[in-house]
Amino acid sequence: MSAVRIVLALIRGIVADRAELAAENLALRQQLAVLSEKKRRPRLRKRDRIFWAWLSRFWSNWRSVLVIVQPETVVRWHQHGFRLYWRWKSRSRKPGRPPIDAEIRKLVRRMSRENPSWGVPRIQSELALLGHIVCETTVRKYRVRHRKPPSQTWRTFLDNHARDIVAIDFFTVPTATFRILFAFVVLRHDRRRVVHFNVTAHPTAQWTAQQIVQAFPDDESPRFLLRDRDSIYGDFFRQRIKHMGIEEVITAPRSPWQNPYVERIGGSIRRECLNRVIVLNERHLSRILSSYFSYYHESRTHLSLNRNSPVPREIEPPERGKVIAIPQVGGLHHRYRRAA
User: How many domains does the chain have?
Assistant: First the structure.
């Protein structure tokens, strides 16, 4: 009998608990009904929305007890949470472009600091020859800015028959004693190579003609010779050129742009060398120009030569070693190589 009493008591307790739970649910629903009838609904916090979105995932009968908001609102909360989740999951770990290596940044600053006259294309060309491929925007961002703006480039022409064209020109150089020296340059158009130069204090037509003979001694004469209308190119000079089988192409009066390559190299010599030294005499000027042309042919890069020098330089990848600087033209310029 004791066992029967225990079972009956347990059943009575379960029935009483269910009745109490039902009464509690009825009271809560009545209060929710009163709240829902009010014009001003209570505000739900973020954690309330998260609770209902989570409950809708795990209880299929959640709509039957929802009173405060509409079921579509809970579905919208869940969709918004889904979008936030995938936005967080798909976020970029490192936003923006990959950073430029510290070595390249230091190298750009070093080149621009050691070569104040170099512009962005020159630095970019040197970096490419060292195995660093960077865009002009990157070089412009990290280079050291100087007060003096970089020199502008000339528009070039005479692309046809470049191997058969040479250009000649004089430019003057003052000395320390205020004498005027004349430097004569013979330039080939194909690789911008200076095939001959000389210096004199008293240029004549005979002296100038002899320079052409020395520039092309062994039947290496070009087909065309481009020059201006300077009176130094007199009858003796023209006859000597004609006997060598060279046809003269004379520019229009006061039109240096018609002979751009040799005019530009004259400007480059002044900007990159002669404007930074004091010339003592003819021998001193010849030594300076010889040093500069060695740098010009073997190291200096040119945009028109695919960012290479007249004597082509090979590209040195980073695995060959660290970058070293070789001073040239007395330290006015530098050549950068990989140390083996």
Answer: 4
Q: Are strands 224-227 and 165-174 parallel, antiparallel or unpaired?
A: parallel
Q: Is residue 312 part of a domain?
A: no
Instruction: Give kind and range of the element (H or E) at residue 1.
Output: none
Residue/partner pairs of 265-272 with CB below 8 Å, 24 or more apart: 265/185, 265/187, 265/192, 265/194, 265/296, 266/169, 266/171, 266/185, 267/151, 268/296, 269/171, 269/183, 270/171, 271/117, 271/151, 272/117, 272/329, 272/332, 272/333
Parallel/antiparallel/unpaired status of strands 247-250 and 224-227: parallel
Dist CA 271 CA 124 (whole Å)? 20
Q: How far apart are CA 130 and CA 310, in angstroms?
A: 17
CA 70 – CA 67 distance, rounded (Å): 7
**Could you give the dihedral angle defined by the CA atoms of residues 202, 205, 206 and 210, in that order, rounded to the nearest 10 degrees?**
90
The whole domain housing 190 covers 162-298
Residue 335 CA from chain centroid, whole number: 20
Whether 177 is in a domain gets the answer yes
Dihedrals phi, psi of 122, to nearest 5 degrees: -65, -45
Measured between alpha carbons, how far is 101 from 81 in angstroms, rounded to an integer?
Answer: 39
**∠ Cα 165 158 119 (to 5°):** 105
Q: What is the Cβ-side half-sphere exposure of residue 103, based on CA atoms within 13 angstroms?
A: 10
Does residue 137 sit in the same domain as residue 223? no
Neighbouring C-beta atoms of residue 167, cutoff 10 Å: 24
Whole-prediction pTM = 0.57
Structure tokens at 105: 């940044």
Report which DSSP code applies to 175: B
* Tens of pLDDT, residues 294-320: 999 999 998 888 889 999 999 888 888
User: Model confidence over 153-190: pLDDT tens digits?
Assistant: 444 444 566 778 899 999 999 999 999 999 999 999 88
